[in-house]
Structure formats: C-alpha cells, structure tokens
C-alpha cells in the first residue's frame, strides 16, 4: 500500500526509490529501539578562503557526530561522477519534490573539485582553473556548493539525534539531508531569477514524501518524537548557518548572492516553524482511519491485575475513559466484568486439601506481595470491587482479571469478541505467562499471535492495540527480566507484520512509559502494580497509540505532575480474643486498603514479628494454652505508604486443637517420600478430620512449605526432586482447626 501510494504522488517517485531501495526498508518498517536524543552536532559559520591553486569553502561542525560515516557519504559523492558538479546534480535530481518550480533550474554550471572531511567538518575545494569570472556562473556555483554542503551537514546532524544503530536514521536522515540541499540550491537560484518560494509548500512536500515512503510504523516508532522535538531546532540552526555564510561571503560573493542567502535564511526560519506540524499532518493522513462507527466505538480491555485493579484504585481504564470523554470521543467499553478485584474476606485458616486433589500441596502461606503477581489463578469471579472514592459512574466494562495469562485468554477471546463485538481491542497481557512459568518469551509471543487470530475469527475487521510488558522490581528472578526484555523486542518486531488490510495491529509502549524497573518502581505500589501515577502513565501510553495510530482524540496531554493520594487511615476497632484456634485479632476493614501489616509478639517480649496480610483478620495458631499475645495493626497501601500503628491489644490463648501424631517415620523413594505415623490420643482428638503433612525442600532457595491433607496412618508424596533433602512435619486438624505440628526425620529423595 505504501509503495503504491508513493509512486502515485507526482514528483515523489525518485525520493521513494531512494528511501525504499537505498534505505532497504520494507513496506512496513521494522525499526530498532525507540529513538533517543544524542549529543547535538552544532554547525559553526562557514569560512571561505583561497590560495594560488584553489577556492575553499569550509564548514566547521562542532559536537558529536560520526566522522567515519560522514567520510563514507563524501566518498560516494566523489566517486559517482567524473565532475563534482555532475555528482551534485545527481544528488539534487533524486530529491525533486511535488512543489512549484521544482525542476533543477538551468543553466547548470559545470566544474570539478572535491568534497573532503576535515578535522573540524567539511571542505569543498574548486581548482582555480575551473573558476569562471561570469557572475551567473558564480551565483550558480555558490548555490550548488551551499546546497551539497547543507545536504551533508543536515544528514550527519540528523544522525546525531538518533540512537546508535537506529534503523530509521538511514532513510530519514538521507531524505532530510538531500531535501535540504536541493531546497537551498533551488531557493537560491529562484531568488536570483526574481521569484519567491513558499516555505510552507516545502515543509508539506518533505512531510508527504517521508510519510508515503516510510509509513505509519516509522512514525509510531520514533519519527513522531523526532519531528515534534528535533526538526525545528535542526532547521533553526541551518537558518543561522546560512546567515553566517552571508557574512563570511560578503567580501567576494556580491550583493545579489548575499540577498539570496538572506532570503534563504528567513525562509528556513519559517520552514523550521512549520515542518513539525507538516509531518504530523502528513502522517495523520496515512495512519488515521475515517471508518470508526458514527455513534460510538466499542472498546474491550483485555488484561490482568494491572488492568483490572484492586478496590480503591482509579485504574488506568478510568483514566483512559476520562481522556475519551475530554476529547468528545463516544466509546462503549465492553466485556463480561465491570469492577475491580474486591478485598479478600476475613476467614479462619482452612484445612489443607487432601492428597490427590487438584489443589493438594499448596503453600502453607500464600506468596508474599513481592512475588510475580501475588496471585496464581486468573479467576475473575471476584470482579465486584469498587473504584476509588470520587470516581463517578463511568463505562467500566472490561475483560481483565488478576493472574490472567495470554495462555488462558487465547482460548477465551473468540467467545468474548463474538458476544460483545468490539471495534478495538486493547490488550495488556504477558507478565503472568513469564512470571508464573507458563511460557518463555517466544511462547508468550506465540500465545499473543494466537489471541489476535482467535479474535479475528470472531470478527475479521477488528483492530488491536497491544501493550508490551513492563519490568518489575527485582525479586531474584533473572529469568523474568531476560524473558520480559526479549518478549518486548519480539513483540515490537512482530506487530507491524500482523496487520492486514481489514484488521490493524499497533504497539503500545508500556515498557518505557511506565516508570517501573528492576532498580526502582516509583509508579507502582508494590514493585509491579500501578499506583495513582502509574495508572496515568499506563493510560497515557494507550492514548498515544490511539491518537497517533488510530486518529482518536484531538490531543494527548502529559501525565499530571500531581496525582491523588490514596487515603491510608489507621485501622479502627482492633480487637484480640481467645478462639478455639488460639487467638484471633480482627479490625474494621479500611476502604481501598491494599493490605495490612500486623505485628505480633508474645506477652512480655521485646521484639515484634511482622506479617503482611490481605484481609482484616489474623489468627495466632500453634500456640500453647495460657500464652498471652499482643498485636498492633496498620494499613498498607504500598511499599512507600502505610498508616501509623494502632494501639496495642492482647489476649490469652486457650486452644482447643488436638495434639500431633506420634512415631512419625519417613523413607525416601526415587521420586518422593513415604511417611507413617501413629494417631494421637487425648483431649480434642475425637473430632480429628485429617492430618496436615508439611513438606519443605531444604535445597531450593525461596521454597514454600507444601501442606498435604492426609487421612489414615500412612501416605506417599511423589513428584519431589531427586537429590534434595526434605524436612517433614505433621499436625492434626479437628473441629477447632490446625494444631501444633511435630517433626519427623528429614529425608533424602532418590
């Protein structure tokens, strides 16, 4: 499509050939990393001098630029024609654009000479025997010399704004340099001929040529940033340079040449003011569809915990909805859920699942908040949580759930799309696939492609915005860091190839927009999940793609400098009471609390033991009768936001749990362990329902205690790691709950 458009625009064919062939880029560019500004390659005033044999024009270029690359370009010019003027004309001919007076003006003057790279920049040398005394020759020669030096200087200065190795640098900088050289030459001669040029027409011509040659992907991958932030200062610099040239040539170039240079200086300044907007208009014309539904756009958010949010969150979905509303874009968010994840309900400890059941061997304690996601499910039955106080009624429908993986949603998305018929699907998945070992980077990419294909099977004309995966703070998982980095690169390369004529796929840059990484995570409350700042950032990334690629919304505002502070009061009504388990501490739930921290100590002890909780209840178990326990609680709303501690409360334990079994014996097998025991006798043993068999891997860093429910007096646990040592313990579970455990002999598996 881009090539077809390129060659259908009058006057652009030559530039298209140069960009598409010399730049060696496909219809849909697959560029390298997003562009980052490098050191500015400043351009000083040119110097004109002569000796007995030649005339020299020196262009000093201060700053950081690639001299070896500049030398390659100079060699190409010097080697492509017998005479320097022929090489310059060939270069200018390649950049004839569809603007008035675009033909290379005649008579063209011929001369030989050379362009060389000096220690400080560029030099154009013309032997004295090539110099004519005719004023027309002088004016044309000045125009040609200034043009070719400008082309090279703009091209290398452009490179200085790009990341080293960025794929866009070659075609973009070649176009800017060639166009600028041709423009300056033609503007010079046109002025001498008594005519005028329109800088706005030149800006539109450059933008249109670049847009049809490079396509939408180049714009989204960084050309937009370059056009908005760097083009104006680049051409302002050249406006100043041309003015300086007029000063240095004053003694010998003649008043006509000086007037021409002064006119070009003014036109370049005006061009600098217009070129950024011209680029945005040109790329909007090829990237922004006009076929969105007239009434409203149906949008489905497909995601995990970062998208569903927890009770009390605003969520990035709400911030995106606000952006749509502010831009007068009517949208209909669709999906099977509407709420956030509700807070965990308080409950006593539950007996371990029986050995052989699907959930047997679950951790005795749930993963802490700094585990990959603090969830191992993906069950979205809990989607009834409320939003932050002050969030009014908004269209909150979605298809996002805590713990959700692409591996799960790729089997569900077809039905959801068939049911809700979205026009646009916003997907933010992948962390849990890699975080919970469902797949590596390549497998996660395969799952994402399957999800896209399955959604298209339900609605062929659907469009997508796919977010990459941000890094989280370090949790000792180098595999997660490596896989995330690799996946993001693979996704960026793959997305441009997934679009079809009927169904577009665009990338959303979460990985750099969201301020969260292995070293720090200021936009997340727990090293991963977004706080109020992070919600704005995640929404902002989607807004940029929806605006730049899909034409939705008039503008994308910056992320606010000030964001709401999450209310974090001290928990109230904290109590501690003796219970059949031991002691139970409770308190009133705090709306929007992301969790709680309780600290516990035996009565009279100096040191506290802190425990992170999700619900407003804590049970002290495995305690002896008559032991006093003390408690303090605080609200936890992230690593950097907690309340003060509550006042101390205490209670004395009088547990009604049963004693542990006796005579525990263990025997290692090739892949597991056999355990036998004797049933206990005594108080509270008459209501024993099962035993808890606790297994802990001594040789695995960060291992959790696995707890299996068993009945009878023997059990076999399989699927353990051969060569590892395991600690074994057992306790009883009766009507009151779990009692104090007793240890058995450790065992070597294998």
Automatic annotation (TrEMBL):
<dbReference type="InterPro" id="IPR013783">
    <property type="entry name" value="Ig-like_fold"/>
</dbReference>
<dbReference type="GO" id="GO:0000272">
    <property type="term" value="P:polysaccharide catabolic process"/>
</dbReference>
<dbReference type="GO" id="GO:0016798">
    <property type="term" value="F:hydrolase activity, acting on glycosyl bonds"/>
</dbReference>
<keyword id="KW-0624">Polysaccharide degradation</keyword>
<protein>
    <submittedName>
        <fullName>Lysophospholipase L1-like esterase</fullName>
    </submittedName>
</protein>
<dbReference type="Pfam" id="PF13472">
    <property type="entry name" value="Lipase_GDSL_2"/>
</dbReference>
<keyword id="KW-0326">Glycosidase</keyword>
<dbReference type="InterPro" id="IPR003961">
    <property type="entry name" value="FN3_dom"/>
</dbReference>
<dbReference type="InterPro" id="IPR036116">
    <property type="entry name" value="FN3_sf"/>
</dbReference>
<feature type="compositionally biased region" description="Pro residues">
    <location>
        <begin position="343"/>
        <end position="354"/>
    </location>
</feature>
<dbReference type="Pfam" id="PF00041">
    <property type="entry name" value="fn3"/>
</dbReference>
<dbReference type="InterPro" id="IPR013830">
    <property type="entry name" value="SGNH_hydro"/>
</dbReference>
<feature type="domain" description="Fibronectin type-III">
    <location>
        <begin position="566"/>
        <end position="656"/>
    </location>
</feature>
<keyword id="KW-0378">Hydrolase</keyword>
<dbReference type="InterPro" id="IPR036514">
    <property type="entry name" value="SGNH_hydro_sf"/>
</dbReference>
<dbReference type="GO" id="GO:0004622">
    <property type="term" value="F:phosphatidylcholine lysophospholipase activity"/>
</dbReference>
<feature type="domain" description="Fibronectin type-III">
    <location>
        <begin position="659"/>
        <end position="750"/>
    </location>
</feature>
<feature type="region of interest" description="Disordered">
    <location>
        <begin position="337"/>
        <end position="387"/>
    </location>
</feature>
<dbReference type="InterPro" id="IPR051532">
    <property type="entry name" value="Ester_Hydrolysis_Enzymes"/>
</dbReference>
<keyword id="KW-0119">Carbohydrate metabolism</keyword>
């Amino acid at each position: 499509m881009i090539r077809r458009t390129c060659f259908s625009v009058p006057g652009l064919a030559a530039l298209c050939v140069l960009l598409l062939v010399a730049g060696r880029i496909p219809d849909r560019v697959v560029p390298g990393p997003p562009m980052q500004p490098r050191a500015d390659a400043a351009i000083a005033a040119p110097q004109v001098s002569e000796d007995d044999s030649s005339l020299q024009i020196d262009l000093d270029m201060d700053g950081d630029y690639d001299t070896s690359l500049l030398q390659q370009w100079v060699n190409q010019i010097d080697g492509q024609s017998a005479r320097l003027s022929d090489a310059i004309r060939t270069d200018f001919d390649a950049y004839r654009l569809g603007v008035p007076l675009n033909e290379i003006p005649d008579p063209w003057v011929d001369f030989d000479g050379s362009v060389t790279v000096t220690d400080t920049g560029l030099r154009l040398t013309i032997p004295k025997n090539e110099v004519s005394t005719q004023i027309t020759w002088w004016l044309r020669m000045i125009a040609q010399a200034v043009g070719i030096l400008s082309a090279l200087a703009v091209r290398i200065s452009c490179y200085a704004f790009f990341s080293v190795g960025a794929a866009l640098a070659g075609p973009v900088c070649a176009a800017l340099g060639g166009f600028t050289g041709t423009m300056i030459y033609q503007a010079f001669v046109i002025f001498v001929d008594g005519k005028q040029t329109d800088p706005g027409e030149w800006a539109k011509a450059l933008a249109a040529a670049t847009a049809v040659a490079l396509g939408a992907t180049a714009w989204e991958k960084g050309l937009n940033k370059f056009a908005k932030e760097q083009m104006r200062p680049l051409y302002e610099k050249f406006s100043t340079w041309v003015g300086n040239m007029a000063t240095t040539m004053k003694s010998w170039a003649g008043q006509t040449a000086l007037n021409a240079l002064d006119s070009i200086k003014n036109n370049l300044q005006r061009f600098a003011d217009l070129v950024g907007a011209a680029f945005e208009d040109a790329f909007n014309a090829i990237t922004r569809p006009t076929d969105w539904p007239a009434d409203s756009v149906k949008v489905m958010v497909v995601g995990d915990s970062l998208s569903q949010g927890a009770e009390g969150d605003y969520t990035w979905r709400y911030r995106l909805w606000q952006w749509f509303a502010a831009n007068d874009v009517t949208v209909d968010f669709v999906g099977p859920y509407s709420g956030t994840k509700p807070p965990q309900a308080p409950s006593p400890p539950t007996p371990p699942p029986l050995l052989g059941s699907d959930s047997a061997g679950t951790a005795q304690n749930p993963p802490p908040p700094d585990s990959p996601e603090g969830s191992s499910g993906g069950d979205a039955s809990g989607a009834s949580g409320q939003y932050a106080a002050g969030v009014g009624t908004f269209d909150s429908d979605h298809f996002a759930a805590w713990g959700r993986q692409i591996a799960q949603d790729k089997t569900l998305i077809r039905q959801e799309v068939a049911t809700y018929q979205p026009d646009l699907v916003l997907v933010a998945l992948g962390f849990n696939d890699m975080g919970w070992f469902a797949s590596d980077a390549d497998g996660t990419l395969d799952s994402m492609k399957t999800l896209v294909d399955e959604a298209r099977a339900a609605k062929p004309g659907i469009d997508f915005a796919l977010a990459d995966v941000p890094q989280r703070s370090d949790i000792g998982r180098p595999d997660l860091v490596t896989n995330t980095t690799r996946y993001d690169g693979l996704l960026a390369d793959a997305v441009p190839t997934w679009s079809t004529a009927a169904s577009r796929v665009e990338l959303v840059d979460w990985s750099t927009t969201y301020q969260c990484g292995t070293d720090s995570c200021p936009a997340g409350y727990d090293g991963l999940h977004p706080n109020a700042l992070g919600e704005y950032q995640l929404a902002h990334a989607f807004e940029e793609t929806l605006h730049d690629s899909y034409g939705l919304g008039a503008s994308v505002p910056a992320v606010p400098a000030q964001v709401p502070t999450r209310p974090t009061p001290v928990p109230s009504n904290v109590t501690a009471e003796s219970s059949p388990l031991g002691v139970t501490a409770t308190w009133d739930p705090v709306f929007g609390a992301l969790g709680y921290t309780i600290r516990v100590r035996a009565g009279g002890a100096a040191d506290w033991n802190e425990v992170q909780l999700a619900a407003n209840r804590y049970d002290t178990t495995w305690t002896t009768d008559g032991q006093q326990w003390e408690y303090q609680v605080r609200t936890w709303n992230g690593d950097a936001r907690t309340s003060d501690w509550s006042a101390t409360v205490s209670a004395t334990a009088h547990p009604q749990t049963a004693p542990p079994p006796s005579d525990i014996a263990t025997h290692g097998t090739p892949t597991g362990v056999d355990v036998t025991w004797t049933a206990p006798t005594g108080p509270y043993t008459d209501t024993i329902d099962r035993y808890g068999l606790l297994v802990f891997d001594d040789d695995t860093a960060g291992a959790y205690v696995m707890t299996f429910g068993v009945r009878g007096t023997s059990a076999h646990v399989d699927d353990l790691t051969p060569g590892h040592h395991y600690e074994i313990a057992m306790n009883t579970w009766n009507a009151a709950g779990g009692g104090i455990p007793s240890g058995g002999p450790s065992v070597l598996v294998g």
